[in-house]
Amino acid sequence: MPHTIALVDDDRNILTSVSMTLEQEGFQVRTYTDGESALQGLLARPVDLAVLDIKMPRMDGMELLQRLRQRSAVPVIFLTSKDEEVDELMGLRLGADDYITKPFSQRLLLERIRALLRRNEVSRAEGSGAPPGGVITRGDLVLDESKHTCTWKGQPIQLTVTEFLLVKALALRPGMVKNRDQLIDAAYGENIYVDDRTIDSHVKRVRKKFRQADPDFSQIETLYGIGYRYKEG
């Protein structure tokens, strides 16, 4: 079955050209020109991945992403302009898995889409570091790779693909420090460049999600200037 990609952008030229490229590469594509229709469409007919622009009529990309994350963990690539650094960080904090700055090459977008789809598939498969069954248990934390689920003290924690892979990378080696480069490789794969603040934004969002379930959550520790680790015990 070919993967289905949603493109959400009010620029019809972008929708047309990117759709043609993706369809030539074997993807099915659904397009939306505003956030409101995109939200209705994505919730009614889920896709494998969504590419969201920021500035759109009726509902901008920020609100769309925020409302989408209340109901769905679909992988999301966020489109932002070079002068919209604040929007990049806000998009990541709202739950985007990746972002690309405009103007972008369609080849780069295609590579990022494929990489994110691979990460999604890998996160659902049994990992080489996981016990039989693909379930990782660390005290009150349970990660089920085959189902792509996470629970803390029995409460479900909805994580995006990137967030799931970050938590997995830390939980597999409790007590060991992971620097940002190692976490980038774990969450994005090798040869994909993202800067350090991207990892920091993802970690902040992960902590927020766990603390909504348990205000005393403190398992993910920051070692300033070094990286992060999952606290043993």
Automatic annotation (TrEMBL):
<dbReference type="GO" id="GO:0000976">
    <property type="term" value="F:transcription cis-regulatory region binding"/>
</dbReference>
<keyword id="KW-0805">Transcription regulation</keyword>
<dbReference type="InterPro" id="IPR001789">
    <property type="entry name" value="Sig_transdc_resp-reg_receiver"/>
</dbReference>
<protein>
    <submittedName>
        <fullName>DNA-binding response regulator</fullName>
    </submittedName>
</protein>
<dbReference type="InterPro" id="IPR039420">
    <property type="entry name" value="WalR-like"/>
</dbReference>
<dbReference type="Pfam" id="PF00072">
    <property type="entry name" value="Response_reg"/>
</dbReference>
<dbReference type="InterPro" id="IPR011006">
    <property type="entry name" value="CheY-like_superfamily"/>
</dbReference>
<keyword id="KW-0963">Cytoplasm</keyword>
<dbReference type="InterPro" id="IPR001867">
    <property type="entry name" value="OmpR/PhoB-type_DNA-bd"/>
</dbReference>
<feature type="domain" description="Response regulatory">
    <location>
        <begin position="4"/>
        <end position="117"/>
    </location>
</feature>
<feature type="domain" description="OmpR/PhoB-type">
    <location>
        <begin position="133"/>
        <end position="232"/>
    </location>
</feature>
<dbReference type="GO" id="GO:0000156">
    <property type="term" value="F:phosphorelay response regulator activity"/>
</dbReference>
<dbReference type="InterPro" id="IPR036388">
    <property type="entry name" value="WH-like_DNA-bd_sf"/>
</dbReference>
<keyword id="KW-0597">Phosphoprotein</keyword>
<keyword id="KW-0902">Two-component regulatory system</keyword>
<keyword id="KW-0238">DNA-binding</keyword>
<keyword id="KW-0804">Transcription</keyword>
<feature type="DNA-binding region" description="OmpR/PhoB-type">
    <location>
        <begin position="133"/>
        <end position="232"/>
    </location>
</feature>
<feature type="modified residue" description="4-aspartylphosphate">
    <location>
        <position position="53"/>
    </location>
</feature>
<dbReference type="GO" id="GO:0005829">
    <property type="term" value="C:cytosol"/>
</dbReference>
<dbReference type="GO" id="GO:0032993">
    <property type="term" value="C:protein-DNA complex"/>
</dbReference>
<dbReference type="Pfam" id="PF00486">
    <property type="entry name" value="Trans_reg_C"/>
</dbReference>
<dbReference type="InterPro" id="IPR016032">
    <property type="entry name" value="Sig_transdc_resp-reg_C-effctor"/>
</dbReference>
<dbReference type="GO" id="GO:0045893">
    <property type="term" value="P:positive regulation of DNA-templated transcription"/>
</dbReference>
